[in-house]
Amino acid sequence: MRQLLAATHKDLLLSWRSRAQASAVMVFGATTLLLFSFAVGPNAAALRQNAGGFLWVALLLSSTLSLAESYRAEIEQRALEGLVLLPASPRSLFYGKAIANWLQLLLVGIGLVPVMVVLYDPGTENLLALVGVLAMGTAALSAPGTLYAAMASQARAQQVLLPLLLFPLVVPVLLAAVKASSLLLLGDPMEQAGSWVMLLAAFNGIFWPLCGLLFGQVVEE
Amino acid sequence: MTGGIIIGGWEYVIAAYAITFTVLGGYTATLLARTRKSKRGQDQEPSR
Amino acid sequence: MAGNSNEKRPLLAYGSIALAVVLFAIGSYIGLFVAPPEHFMGEVQRIMYVHVPTAWVALVTLLWAFVSALGFLFLRKWKWDSRMEASIEVGVLLSFLLCMQGSIWAKPTWGVWWDWDPRLTTTAVMLFAFIGILALRRFVEDPVRRATWSAVATIVAFADVPIVYFSVKWWNSLHQVQSTPQTVDSPMITPLRINAFAMLFLMMGLVGLRTRLAARRLENELAPPLPERETETRAIAAGGEA
Predict the structure, then answer these.
(1) Domain assignment of residue C54, given as a range
(2) pLDDT tens digit string along A104-135?
(3) Would the CB atoms of B13 and C32 count as touching at under 8 Å?
(4) Residue C3 falls inside a structural domain
(5) C128: chain A residues, CB-CB within 8 Å
(6) C3, C78 in Cβ contact below 8 A?
(7) Partner A contacted by C151 (CB < 8 A)
(8) Using the beta-carbon criterion (under 8 Å), do B24 and C9 form an inter-chain contact?
(9) In this complex, is the C-beta atom of A194 within 8 Å of any C-beta atom belonging to chain C?
(10) What is the mean pLDDT of residues C4-27?
(11) Which of A80-89, A114-123, B36-45, C181-190 shows the lowest mean pLDDT across its residues?
């Protein structure tokens, strides 16, 4: 447990030190939202209907940047080998990094909400619940993302490898998060949002343990 | 699902079969060729 | 299913493929010309005689990939990595065919090229996932890492399959009530069975051949220099000094 806290602290510290990068990621996300508006055109109804979808695609694209960034320190300073030599289990390393990535992504998501509200006008109902969905969705992206980013950062063609591996895997997350977000923003006459949130919970429940288990295989030699 | 009797449609059937067998046949041929090539390479090298 | 010793010819694989060709000829002939057209779908039904076998065998192939991934991680023997590489490649091929057949079937039936059927959509998602794993293998040069990482990725991808399926099924059910009748009440089970066996034998032959190729490449990557080469090098060096 102490290892976990130490690892999380380390990664949060790294994130704080590179907060300029983090703000750049947020701007990237906001730009993506803007691009969607231009792609769809000034069709207020279409924009409003799909606000949830745009938000999550923008978040997914941003995640490739922030996930890759989270390993930059390790790769540049060759710190990955050093970390593994420490008497810390790979599992704590993984969860520390995954939690830090999650929080970072959640921050980006929260930052994008006002942008979305302004551009797409989906109303401001249930924003607190929306943050809950953001929390679950970004967590679901972070677990496999941290695992795959560990591989991608050490391989060739790393920038394309991470999205190539991650995107198909997180299709259920996208579906559930978009559905839940849209229902929360636009109205949920049949109370379905809860079920989609449960799907997110199930995804988290499966992949946080699984990726933690497999992380050791990826960093140890 | 009731209704909608589809008339004809042989083009689709032929397309499906043709693509399936062409792709499978092509891949099979590729593997056979590579196997033969690698075997020849193996024979020329002295065995360990 | 793994390669025989490198010196012998892969007779089992060759035989399997030959048998598959014969069975395909018979099964397809019956399916195309002998079986009666189905009541609602007409001639288009005949696509099922290749589509369903492809589906079954694709599933078996990817299951074998999953087993091989576990085999490598737990047993640490190279043959499991070769088997995994082979079965992922063949599995990708079959999944691609599956999506194409499904699309060709959907157009005359529903009027669109894609009907978001949960099984087919899950296949499409897994197709991309496994192509990503093939790309991963291509971009990692160290054999140990390549094997370990792709095994990990295969396991994660496999764990995702049921989740993808249920999420798509649910997502789709809110919009449409269409379904692909993949469990076929076909006028004739016979061409289906024959083609299913044909596809299975073909897959086994292909995976067998591909496994050998993968194993051979691994040998080259991992092997120490041959003694004969060292003699050559010494001769060249001696010649250079003279």
Answers:
(1) 11-180+188-232
(2) 999 999 999 999 999 888 877 788 889 999 99
(3) yes
(4) no
(5) 167-168
(6) no
(7) yes
(8) no
(9) no
(10) 82
(11) C181-190
Tokens of C241: 């000094």
Q: Alpha-carbon dihedral of residues A147, A153, A155, A161, nearest 10 degrees?
A: 70
Q: What is the maximum span of chain A, computed from C-alpha positions, in angstroms?
A: 57
- Within-domain flag for B2: no
In angstroms, rounded to a whole number, what is the distance separating the alpha carbons of residues B33 and B19?
21
Are chains C and A in touch, 3+ Cβ pairs below 8 Å? yes
pTM: 0.87
Q: Quote the CA–CA distance of B32 and B40 in Å, as a whole number.
A: 12
> Would residue B33 count as lying in a domain?
yes
Residue type, C67: V
Domain count, chain B: 1
Q: Contact C167/A157, CB-based, under 8 Å?
A: no
In terms of Cα–Cα distance, which of C143, C212, C88 is closest to B37? C212
Total structural domains within chain C: 1
**Above 70 in pLDDT, residue C68?**
yes
Domain ranges of chain A: 2-219
- Residue listed under structure tokens 């046949």: B25
Instruction: List the single residue in C with minimal CA-CA distance to A221.
Output: C145
